[in-house]
């Protein structure tokens, strides 16, 4: 068991949703989470509420990610956990997806995770201590979805890089796993924003929702991220939190 | 989050290895685990040491499995968790060997039919009490990938994963979640240095990438940790959690 207590963790996209729930769980376990997020307003607000550091970052900018890792190591002297969770979902199919939007998804979802993993793992290797990296992919990294071309492509990439890095850094006892959530309640995805009908359609995609009447909760996905951090013999694995979606 | 506290859990193969580690983890969380195992000596000893019930059971015997669940339900009034940890390994033969089918059938009898027998009577009760329950099956990395000479073991463990997915979909409307653990090489009575000999043991560890970092096989607590996760996570169903130090990633 990889004890989270006193471990330093960077959580990108940590200012809301799955990332914020993960920050809260790491904190509850006595860890030292750092919120890294592009959204300065909610980042600062949650950081103050929880009493944890906030760093503003655009994960698509390699230099910024490098600086965040350096700043956190300056602050605490070490880095043990990276949760590369920040991402965007531009919903568009082949003919209405501009190359600019596509590139942006690649820069954030794919390159962003790569930069986070690169500088975190570099630091972990330097420390010579065990480490845990969790990359947020999606069910869209496992199965296809029409009109989510950029999301599908980049989330498959996250799943692939997870496995490659898991094998590369197994000798260093640095574990790298991916999380694959389906639909999760958030600021962007809830009945008020998307409407009752759309929410019912979304619910119907998940077999377990027939019983629970809802989509996933950020805490349920964070619970999977915590598991992936803590389990000392799991690496390169996929934790699929989708209420049975991809089983059908 | 599915709270284990106060829940009644049957753990087959609970007298040793991953099963016993799971029993202890459930107990630590305030649950009420029951050891069900073929091994009477170890079962009685561990149950007594932990102060919990023990049932001697051959899970491949449907009638006996039914009787066991009837008795457990009568005594506990509810059943919330089933961990199908019981299974047999070995039986490695090429298909053309004279006893290959006999041995394969033995594997299927315990690993597949035994798991199904327990699922049937446990899930019947779970549905009756209104659902919100968890079933965890135990397959193997050989349920995901395979080896030569493993029609019995690998074949049966692949079946366990298929059964898990079908049962997950069938029982989702009752909020009965069904997931499966796929352990890699884990130090147990079925896999250890004494049984395999140092040379083969070390060769096998070499196949497990994370063993290069840790210098060891997985331990039973790491596997039990994953079983507990599958019981507790309220949005997880039909899934395989593979705790194999990267074996199947290669």
Overall tally of structural domains of chain A:
1
Strand order of the largest sheet of chain B: 3-2-1-4-5-6-7
Q: Which regions of chain B contain 5 or more consecutive residues with pLDDT less than 50?
A: none
Distance between the termini of chain B: 33 Å
Describe the fold and architecture.
The complex is a heterodimer of chains A (248) and B (250). By secondary structure, chain A is of the alpha/beta class. Chain A has one domain: 3-Layer(aba) Sandwich (Rossmann fold), CATH 3.40.50. Helices cover 48% and strands 15% of the residues of chain A. Chain A contains 9 helices and 7 strands, in the order βαβαβαβαβαβααααβ. Chain A has helices at 17-28, 40-50, 62-76, 99-127, 149-169, 191-194, 196-204, 209-212, 218-230, and strands at 8-12, 32-37, 54-56, 81-84, 131-136, 174-181, 238-241. A 7-stranded parallel sheet of chain A has the order 3-2-1-4-5-6-7, sandwiched between helices. The longest helix of chain A is centred in the middle third of the chain and has 29 residues, at 99-127. Chain A starts with 7 loop residues before the first strand and ends in a 7-residue tail after the last strand. By secondary structure, chain B is of the alpha/beta class. Chain B has one domain: 3-Layer(aba) Sandwich (Rossmann fold). Chain B contains 9 helices and 7 strands; from the N terminus they run E-H-E-H-E-H-E-H-E-H-E-H-H-H-H-E. Chain B has helices at residues 17-28, 40-50, 62-76, 100-128, 153-171, 193-196, 198-206, 209-214, 220-232; strands at residues 8-12, 32-37, 54-56, 81-84, 133-138, 176-183, 240-243. Chain B has a 7-stranded parallel sheet with strand order 3-2-1-4-5-6-7, sandwiched between helices. In chain B, helix 4 runs parallel beside helix 5. Classes of the chains: A alpha/beta (248), B alpha/beta (250).
